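To close the section, here is one more complete example, presented without commentary so you can practise reading it yourself. The ligand is manganese (II) ion.
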Amino acid sequence: MNIHEYQAKALLASYGAPVSDGRAVLKAEDAKTAAGEMDGPLWVVKAQIHAGGRGKGKFKEADAGDAGGVRLTKSAVEAAEEAKKMLGRTLVTHQTGPAGKQVNRIYIEDGSGIETEMYLALLVDRQTSRIGFVVSTEGGMDIEEVAEKTPEKILNFTVDPATGYQAYHGRRVAFALGLEGQQVKQCVKLMGQLYKAFTEKDMEMLEINPLIITDEGSLKVLDAKVAFDGNAVYRHADIAALRDETEEDPKELAASKFDLNYIALDGEIGCMVNGAGLAMATMDIIKLYGAEPANFLDVGGGATKEKVTEAFKIITSDPQVKGILVNIFGGIMRCDVIAEGVVAAVKDVGLQVPLVVRLEGTNVEEGKAIINNSDVDVIAADDLKDGAEKIVKAVKG
Ligand code: GDP
Ligand code: MN
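Output:
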């Protein structure tokens, strides 16, 4: 689960990390008041979307101006004007994809004088099952580019969970960043605060790009991107409350409400499968026969008729879907329940695209009978290969 920059900064600040004073606003009218509460001489106006690269981004609408999603202004009035230009407009960055993301929130921040921009990230290192630090002097730019062109400028190390964070880890970061004197102390403290926040809140990734040295010589978190482990959010009511559903794919959001494992993809064949492994195999075989899956969907082992209906609604709400392949292996799940769900869903949703159903396993004959005796338009398939061939043929002719 992702959160906005301003939320991440407030969370890190609660652990003692140094961040600038700032206000998040939803409406242009509030921007002036918010900006007026800061002293200047610099006001930074930042689009809040769940994507990075905002500074170098471009707005789709001409009236948003030529500047990107991070704007430096010299007065509270000017800050409010820039906020107004960005609100409701669509920002395209290298992380949003060409469709971009609508800006519904603006963060107005007391601007910092910057001496140096650096890069810092904490993440879960799956190879060592530890929390890792990624540190670089090359801040403010794409870390992927630094990794490709000048990998020697990136320091990686992991923290042994048996000892947890120790001061020497912080000194290692400070040394890699070329910090001196008081900054080393600050760095040791800050790294400890970040590590604590990371572990206590079950983060998956915490990226600070840039971490800066201000013109007054102290460290500050200037940008913050946080992703939490979705499987652990139930343990943190405070984090769950930060979820901004407007930033999520509506189909994935609906699926999560019905406990369906759904991931939206770019293809034209919607698929509904039980079991993650079978869902992957189904996607593979669709590709093998020359088409692309529109989604990954595992309805789970104990899907009810209601769940199947919801799954169908989600699949058909995607305008890119030109055909649907249902592939169910009835184990715990009974084929007749699925068949009932499919028939009910088709009637409910009013299916406009071809539908191929392959059922196998427990109560398969009852299931097939339900489909055959219904008046819905279904193409029956005998096995996975047959199902994939039939749906691709139905869609591509
Ligand atoms: P991103 O483009 O989405 O990563 O947004 P950032 O928050 O990282 O901002 C992009 C860039 O804007 C930073 O790398 C800085 O160069 C600049 N910037 C952001 N905040 C400030 C600020 O308070 N003062 C100054 N001088 N520059 C800033
Ligand atoms: Mn950044």
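Once you have examined the tokens, check your reading against these statements. Residues 52, 209, 223 surround manganese (II) ion (ligand 2) (CB under 6 Å). The first strand starts at residue 22 and ends at 25.
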